[in-house]
Amino acid sequence: MTRKDPSPVDLEFAESATDTSLSRRGLVTRVGAAGLSGLAAALLVDRSSLAVAAGPDDRPGVPTESDDVLLAQAMAFELALGDLYRTASEGAFDDLALFGDIMASNHRSYAEAIAGATGISAGAADPKLIADNFDAFMASTTEALLAAHSLEQTAVATHTALIARYESNTAITLTASIAVVEARHATVIADILGVENLDVLFGNDQSPLEFAGDSA
Amino acid sequence: MPFQLSSTTSRRDVLKVGGLTISLGAFVAACGDDRGGDDAPGRVGSAPVPTALPDYAVDDAVLLRTASSLEITAIEVYEAALAINGAIPPSLIPVVERLIEDHQMIADQMVELTESVGGEGWTCSNPWLMDRLVAPTIELIQSNVIGVVLEDTSMVQVIGEQVMIAPVVKTAQGDLILISSTNGLEEGDEIEFERLEGAVSDDVMAFAQALESLAAASHQELAGLTSNIETRVAHLEAASLEARHSSVLAIAIYGPDGYISPAMVGEDVPPTERSQIRHFAIESTFGQTSQIEVKAGPADLNGVRPSVVMQTPAANTLVYNELICDA
Question: Could you give the CA distance from residue B122 to residue B136 in angstroms, rounded to a whole number?
Answer without folding.
Answer: 23
